[in-house]
Amino acid sequence: MTTQRTTQGARPKFRRGGKGRRPCFCKESKVDYKDVSNIRRFITDRGRIEAGEKIG
């Protein structure tokens, strides 16, 4: 009463998900807190600055 095992195909390698890294938005000049158009991407809807891992 032995049962045969079916072989499975090769499993895909583990891929890490996520948003990925964004490039630095201000390479040529210094960061200015008054420049809302650039900083808006890095602030949450509640007005908090996102973590460095998320924004690069």
Brief descriptors of the model:
56 residues; rod-shaped; little secondary structure; single chain; 14% helix
Provide an overview of this structure:
The chain is low in regular secondary structure and 56 residues long. It has a domain at 19-56. The chain is built from two helices and no strands. It has helices spanning 36-39, 52-55. The longest helix is centred in the last third of the chain and has 4 residues, at 36-39. The radius of gyration is 23 Å and the shape is rod-shaped. It starts with 35 loop residues before the first helix and ends with a helix. The model has no long low-confidence stretch (mean pLDDT 71).
Summarize the entry for a quick read.
With 56 residues, this protein is largely without helices or strands. The chain contains 2 helices and no strands. The chain has a domain at 19-56.
Q: What topology emerges from the helices and strands here?
A:
Elements: H1 36-39, H2 52-55
Q: What amount of the residues lies in strands?
A: under 5%
What percent of the residues sit in helical stretches (DSSP H or I)? 10-25%
Q: Would you report the number of β strands? A: 0
Low-confidence stretches: none
Order of helices and strands: HH
* Overall pLDDT score: 71
Number of helices: 2
Query: What is the CA-CA span between the terminal residues?
Result: 58 Å
Shape: rod-shaped
Q: Mind describing the biggest β-sheet?
A: none
Structural class: little secondary structure
